[in-house]
Amino acid sequence: MNTIWAIAAVVIKELYRRKDFYVLFVLTAMLTLLMGSLSFFHDAQAVRYLKELCLLLIWVSALVIAITTTARQIPAERENRTIFPLLAKPVSRAQVILGKFLGCWLACGLALLVFYVFFGVVSAAREHALPLASYFQALWLHWCALAIVVALALGGSLVFAAPSSNATICFVVCLGILLVGRHLNKVALSLPEPSQTLLYTVYFAIPHLELFDVRELIIHDWGLIAWPVWALATVYAAAHTAVLLLISWLVFRRKPLS
Amino acid sequence: MPSPHLILSLLLVVCFGLAAWLQPRHAAWAGGRAEAGSLLEMLLGDSRRLFANHFFVKADVYLHNGYYPSVFDVQDGCEKLHITEQEGQPGGHEHETGEHAGEDYGFFGPPRDWLDRFSRNFYPSRHTHLESGPGQGEVLPWLRMSAWLDPRRVESYTVAAYWLRRHLGRPRAAAGLLREGWRANPDSPEILFELGRAYADLRDDTRARNVWELGLRKWHAQEDAKPEPNVFLRRELTACLAALEQRQGRIAEAVRHLETLKSLSPGNQAIQKQIDELRQGRR
After folding, report:
1. Model confidence over A174-189: pLDDT tens digits?
2. Which residues contact A10 (CB under 8 A, 6 or more apart)?
3. What is the pLDDT of residues A125-155, one digit of tens each?
C-alpha cells in the first residue's frame, strides 16, 4: 500500500506544479463573478442562473483536469524512460496502475473541493443559505463520476498511442454519456430487433456518468437525495471503476514497454 | 534577381490595391456584420436567435424547477411552453384537471427499467412550479438575456413583463421593458397590449387607452388579411378597453367595445347582460 501511496503522491505534486488547475479556477471564478455582477431588473434575489453557470464551469473544468492529467501519466513515464527504474524496484504493474489512479483521483478531489468551496461562497452570498448536506452529496457524486473518468482515461492511455488522441476520445465518450446516456433506452425501444437488444445492452453496459450529475437538484433546491440511493450510486461508481482498472491492468500486464 | 525591397514594395502595393477593391464589396455583402447595431450582433450574427430561443426555453425550465422533457421525451400536446400561457388563454396549463391528470410520471412516462427508475433520483422528475413570491424572479434573467440576444422576439418582452407585473408587482419595470420592446418591434399589437396593462396597473388610464387603441389598429393592419387571425388578442384588447371606458364613466364607448366583444364571442350571454345593464344605467 505504501508503494501505491508513494506513486499517488508524485501525481498529486504534479497537479499543483502544473498551471491547468489555476487557469481553470481563475476562469471559472472570473466568469461566475462577471455574470453575478449583472443586474436583471434590479432583482438581487435571482441566483439560480448563477448557480447553473458556476456548476457548468465546474463540471467542464473537472473533466478537463481529470482527463488531461490522467491521459499523460503513463505515456510520460514511457517517453522519459522513468517507467524502467520504477518497475525495476519492487513495484508491480498493478501497483503502478493503482498508484496512478489514486493520485489522479485524489488530485481531482482536491481540485473539486476548491471549486465547490467557491461555489458555496458565491451561492451563500446571494442566497443567504448554505445547504451543506446537499453540496456534500453533489461534491461526492461528482468525485465518484471522476473516478470512472480517471479509470477510463488511464485505460485509454495504455491503448492509444498518443495522450492527445486518448484525451479527445475520452472527452467524446464522457460528453456522449452525459448528454445521451440517459435516453439510450428510449431510443432502443423505438428500434427493430436486433438493434434494440444491441443498444439496450450498450445502455446497461456503459458507466452512466449522468447519474452523478445532480446539478439540476442543486440549482432548483430540490433537497437531499435519499442517503441509501446516494450510497448505491457510490457502489455503482466503485463497480465501474474496478472493472475499468481491471481491464487496464490486464492490458498493461502484457504490454511491452520499449 | 530583382532587389528584395522592390519585390516587397510591389507586394505591398498589390495588397493595398486588393484591400481597397474588396472593402466596398465586403461592406455591401448581405451577410456581413459591419452594419451590426450591437457587439452581440456582430459577434454572433444570426446564431444569436438560436441562443435567444434556448434562453427562452430555459425560463420555462426554471418555471418548472428543472422538471422538463428532453427531445427524447416530448409527447403530443406538450410542445407549447407553459411560461407563455396567461390567464384566460385557451388550452391552458392545468395540472389537476388537465393534461397531467392521473399521471404519476408526467413527461417521462413510467420507468422503463431498473436503471431508469434509479436514475430518476438524480434529476427533477416531479412536476412542480416556482413558489409564489420573490422566487418567481428566477425566470427573469433568461427572459432578459433572450430579449438582449434577439430584440425582434416579441414573446421575450411580453412574458417578462407579465411576470414582472403580475407575479412580482413591478408594473413600472414591466413598462420600461415593453417600451424597449416597442422600439424594436413598433408594429407588435402584443407588446402594445401588455404595455397598456402595465399603464393600467400604474393608474395611467390615458396612456393605457392610447396604446390599446393603437394596438387594435396594428392588429387590424396585420391580422385582417390572415385566414386564421389571432382573435384571442383582439378580444383581450377590446375587453380591456371596455373595462377602462366603463371605469371612466364613458358608457357609450364601453358599450361600443362590448358590442364588438360580443361579435367576437358568440353565445356569451354575460356580455349581452353587461351591455343591457350599462344601457339601463344600473352601473
Report:
1. 999 999 998 898 888 8
2. A103
3. 888 888 899 999 999 999 999 999 999 999 9
| Residue recorded with cell 422600439 | B183
Residue B69, chain A, CB below 8 Å: the answer is no
Q: Which 8-state DSSP code applies to residue B283?
A: -
Longest distance between any two alpha carbons in chain B, whole Å = 106
Helical (H) or strand (E) element with A236: helix A227-253
Q: What is the length of chain A?
A: 258
Q: Exposure of B259 by Cβ count < 10 A (0-12 exposed, 13-18 middle, 19+ buried)?
A: middle
Measure the CA–CA gap between A145 and A174, rounded to whole angstroms: 10
CA distance B272 to B262: 7
Q: Is A123 left (phi over 0), alpha (psi -120 to 50) or beta?
A: alpha
Pair A136, A233: CB distance under 8 Å: no
Mean pLDDT of B110-126: 88
Q: How far is residue B248 CA from its own chain's centroid?
A: 30
Query: What is the DSSP code string of A184-225?
Result: HHHHHHTSPTTHHHHHHHHHHHS--GGGG--HHHHHTT--PP
CA dist A144 and A138 (Å) reads: 10
Are the C-beta atoms of residues B58 and A46 closer than 8 Å to each other? no
B187 part of contact set with chain A, CB < 8 Å? no
Q: Which residues contact A20 (CB under 8 A, 6 or more apart)?
A: A64, A65, A68, A69
CB contact under 8 A, B115 and A232: no
Work out the widest C-alpha separation in chain A, in whole angstroms: 66
Residue B131 three-state SS: coil
Q: CA–CA separation, A186 vs A203, rounded Å?
A: 10
Q: Which residue of A has its CA nearest to B171?
A: A41
CA-nearest of A52, A45, A51 to A127 is A45
Cα B278 from Cα B283, distance rounded (Å): 6
What are the Cα distances from residue A34, in Å, to A1, A50, A122, B46, B165?
45, 10, 12, 25, 28
Distance between CA A183 and CA A177 in Å, rounded?
A: 10
The answer to whether the Cβ–Cβ distance between A46 and B141 falls below 8 Å is: yes
**Closest chain A C-alpha to B160 CA, distance in angstroms:** 10
Residue A106 burial (CB count, 10 A) = 18
Residue A108's Cβ-count burial label (10 Å; 0-12, 13-18, 19+) is: buried
In this predicted structure, the answer to whether residue B35 has a pLDDT above a threshold of 70 is no
- The residue ranges of DSSP E strands in chain B, in sequence order, are none
